[in-house]
Structure formats: structure tokens, C-alpha cells
């Protein structure tokens, strides 16, 4: 066999070996926020019993120096110089005949850790300031109207540990107004701010007619809810009129609007 032929065969064999190696590996990719905690990974043996499942861990494009040749190991973000609250991407490369398990995935999920330093309402603008956030999560603004807390909107949190100030334009209603913000993380348990109570100067909104064929008309634009006799929400929105022509004739409906709730009208 000539040298050239031997060299060709060896190169071809190495090529297919590399292709097989690439095809025989997979990656487990996780994205999250660094919360100051290590990520723990259960690392089984490969199916053929030769070596462990994971062969490389990459964080934000950088190969870690973690000791992965064991049945379990920790990904230490601190030694990579990553700051708390920073976005992170972890790529755990492993053989395709086995699967590593992340034991504490919540370690890189955003936590609601904000501390409120100020909250107020001025000219229907809600302003609040926080510190010690450790991940970007939405702040949900709620108003107490119709004898319940109603979502008015939301503002995405900055997620940084320094001072962060947020603003939200409210749609007030007549009488005493109550407003608050809440934030919910992966635990599903909301954290509420203190309530802000204020009374805007505005006239009470009224509506007509009590028997309606097509449109309900309000004396000013307002948020509204309409329920049928079974308590099902059939319409909701904001405006000075609401078209009810598609509601069932002869039925009575319940209307919440402005600061009034439980008002009734009949569809004709």
C-alpha cells in the first residue's frame, strides 16, 4: 500500500471518527439569572461504563474549571467573576447515551427580592423606587375597585441591585382610590407593596339607558365589566360607550364601572 493511500485512509478514518464523536454528544442548555448560588449537577456514568456523562461545561461562552469527573459536581459562578443579577447561559455538554440532572434549577431563576424605598401617587402617576432586585421580573400594578383588586397594568423590573424608579399612569375612579404593586417569582407566591390611598377630584360617572338595545353610554370614559346572570364575564374594557347588541335579548346583566359595582340593565 502506498504512503499516499495509507495517509488518505487514515485521514478518512479520523474524519468519520470526529463526525461520530460530534454526533455522539448532546448539550443541555440553561438560561437564567445568577442569584449568588452554585448550580449542582448529578453526573451519571456513560452507558458503556467508561467515564462520566458530562465532558464539558460552558458558562457565557467560557469553559469552566469545575471538577466534572465525579458523580456530582457544582458549577461555581463566583470564580468566573459573574455578578449577582447578571444573565447567564450554561451549556452542559454530555454524551448522548446518558443524561445529567440539574438538582437545583431554581438557583438561576429570578427571585423577588426587591425592597421598596418609596411609593406615591401624584396627578394620577404612580411612582415607586426599589433596591436590592436580583433579576428582571414584572411589577404588576393593581387598583382596588368593585370590591376586589384589579390589574391595571405592569412594568418590567430592571432587576439590578441599585436604586430603580418606576412610573405608571393610573386610570382613577371617583372616591377613595387604593393602589399597590406586586411581584411574583418562580415560587408563585406574590410579594405586595404597601397600599397608596388617594382621592382624585372627579365627578362620579353615570350610565344610561337602563333598558338598552345597542349601546350603553357613560358620562365619561371609564373601565367597565359586564356579567350575565350566571356570573360569567361577557364584556370588559375602557371607554365612553360599550356596544351590547350581541347580548341575549330579554336578559338582565350586571355592570361594574367607575367606582360602582352590581348595577343592572336589561337587554331589549
What would you say this structure looks like, in words?
The chain has 268 residues and is mostly beta strands. The chain has three domains: 3-108, no CATH class; 115-198, Immunoglobulin-like, CATH 2.60.40.10; 207-267. 8% of the residues lie in helices and 49% in strands. The strands form five sheets. Strands 16, 17, 18, 19, 20 and 21 form a six-stranded mixed β-sheet that branches. Strands 10, 11, 13, 14 and 15 form a five-stranded antiparallel β-sheet that branches. It is elongated, with a radius of gyration of 30 Å. The model is unreliable at 3-23 (pLDDT under 50).
In short:
By secondary structure, the protein is mainly beta. The chain is 8% helix and 49% strand. It has 3 domains: 3-108, no CATH class; 115-198, Immunoglobulins (Immunoglobulin-like); 207-267.
Query: How much helical structure, as a percent, in the residues?
Result: under 10%
Q: From the helix content, strand content and strand pairing, which structural class follows? A: mainly beta
**Number of individual domains:** 3
How confident is the prediction overall: mean pLDDT? 89
Rg over alpha carbons: 30 Å
- How many DSSP-defined strands? 21
Task: Give the helix/strand layout.
Blueprint: H1 3-23, E1 25-33, E2 39-42, E3 54-59, E4 62-63, E5 72-75, E6 87-95, E7 101-102, E8 115-122, E9 125-131, E10 138-145, E11 148-156, E12 164-169, E13 177-184, E14 190-192, E15 196-198, E16 207-208, E17 211-212, E18 215-227, E19 233-243, E20 252-257, E21 260-267
Parallel strand pairs: 17-21
Antiparallel strand pairs: 1-6, 2-5, 2-7, 3-4, 3-6, 8-9, 9-12, 10-11, 10-13, 13-14, 13-15, 16-18, 18-19, 18-20, 20-21
Amino acid at each position: 500500500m502506498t504512503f499516499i493511500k495509507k495517509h488518505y485512509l487514515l485521514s478518512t478514518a479520523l474524519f468519520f471518527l470526529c463526525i461520530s464523536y460530534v454526533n455522539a454528544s448532546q448539550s443541555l442548555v440553561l438560561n437564567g439569572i445568577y442569584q449568588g448560588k452554585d448550580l449542582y449537577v448529578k453526573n451519571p456514568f456513560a452507558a458503556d461504563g467508561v467515564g462520566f456523562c458530562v465532558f464539558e461545561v460552558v458558562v457565557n461562552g467560557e469553559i469552566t474549571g469545575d471538577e466534572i469527573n465525579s458523580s456530582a459536581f457544582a458549577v461555581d459562578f463566583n470564580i468566573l467573576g459573574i455578578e449577582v443579577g447578571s444573565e447567564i447561559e450554561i451549556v452542559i455538554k454530555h454524551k448522548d447515551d446518558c443524561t445529567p440532572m440539574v438538582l437545583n434549577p431554581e438557583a438561576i431563576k429570578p427571585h423577588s427580592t426587591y425592597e421598596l424605598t418609596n411609593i406615591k401617587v401624584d396627578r394620577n402617576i404612580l411612582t415607586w423606587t426599589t433596591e436590592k432586585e436580583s433579576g428582571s421580573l414584572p411589577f404588576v400594578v393593581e387598583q382596588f375597585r368593585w370590591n376586589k383588586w384589579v390589574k391595571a397594568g405592569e412594568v418590567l423590573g430592571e432587576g439590578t441591585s441599585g436604586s430603580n424608579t418606576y412610573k405608571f399612569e393610573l386610570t382613577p375612579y371617583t372616591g377613595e382610590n387604593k393602589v399597590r404593586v406586586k411581584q411574583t417569582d418562580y415560587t408563585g407566591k406574590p410579594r405586595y407593596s404597601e397600599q397608596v390611598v388617594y382621592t382624585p377630584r372627579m365627578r362620579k360617572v353615570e350610565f344610561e339607558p337602563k333598558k338598552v338595545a345597542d349601546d350603553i353610554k357613560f358620562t365619561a370614559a371609564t373601565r367597565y365589566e359586564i356579567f350575565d346572570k350566571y356570573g360569567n364575564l361577557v364584556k370588559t374594557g375602557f371607554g365612553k360607550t360599550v356596544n351590547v347588541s350581541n347580548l341575549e335579548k330579554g336578559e338582565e346583566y350586571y355592570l361594574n364601572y367607575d367606582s360602582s359595582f352590581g348595577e343592572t340593565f336589561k337587554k331589549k
